[in-house]
Amino acid sequence: MKRLFYVTNHLDDAEEISDQVHQAGIDDHHFYVISRDKKGLKQHHLHGSSNLKKTRIIAATDRAGLLVLIFAVITVGLFLFTDLIKELSTASGIVIGLLAVALLLFVIKYTGKSFDNYFIDMFEQRTKDGEVVIIIDVARDQAHRVETIMDSHPKAHFIADSTNWGSPLPD
Questions:
Q1: Are 14 and 134 in contact (CB under 8 A)?
Q2: Average pLDDT of every residue of the chain
Q3: Could you give the CA distance from residue 28 to residue 18 in angstroms, rounded to a whole number?
Q4: What is the pLDDT of residue 171?
Q5: Torsional sign, CA 11, 3, 30, 145
Q6: Does residue 114 have a pLDDT over 50?
């Protein structure tokens, strides 16, 4: 799935967009609004939150952690079930192998955290400035239809897209 991020200045616009996107077949579990106006979210019947950090919408760190775990299992499997350990039987070979694995794991984890922090900082600043962030998860084949709907709203502006793999919208 593809995750689309838009901003607008008013919850009224977000409610109108929500109605149109819902008519196009996108349900509440794939449409989410972030606004500091908690009361306004309820009044407009919008699926959302006033606190970005509690939403867990951005989960690149979690995905990176999963990649680290998979890589570690594969590496241990290679050492246990192949003759690779014999090839690295010298002390220097083992140290070099472990350092390479540790460095790769660090880079994967750090990259995920950087991605999360980038999005969190951007959304925090936008909501602090009074904007409303709209997040829509769509199947790749629905993306064009939703983008067309969003293009018809001059007050809504596209800010980013990403994958939602491993990061479903919260209930």
A1: yes
A2: 77
A3: 9
A4: 43
A5: positive
A6: yes
Sheet (strand 31-34) strand order? 48-49, 31-34, 132-138, 2-8, 157-163
Whole-number Å distance between alpha carbons of 97 and 87: 11
Question: Is the separation of the CB atoms in 28 and 138 below 8 Å?
Answer: no
In the block, which residue shows the tokens 């594969």? Answer: 74
Please state the pTM of the whole predicted model: 0.66
Tell me if 31 sits within 8 A of 21, measured CB to CB.
Answer: yes
pLDDT at 135 over 80: yes
* Inter-residue contact 41 to 33 (CB < 8 Å): yes
Q: Which amino acid is at 20?
A: Q
Q: From the CB of residue 26, how many other CB atoms can be counted at a distance below 10 Å? A: 20
Q: Are strands 48-49 and 31-34 parallel, antiparallel or unpaired?
A: parallel
Amino acid at site 96: I
pLDDT value, residue 72 = 73
Q: From CA 143, how far away is CA 153, in angstroms rounded?
A: 16
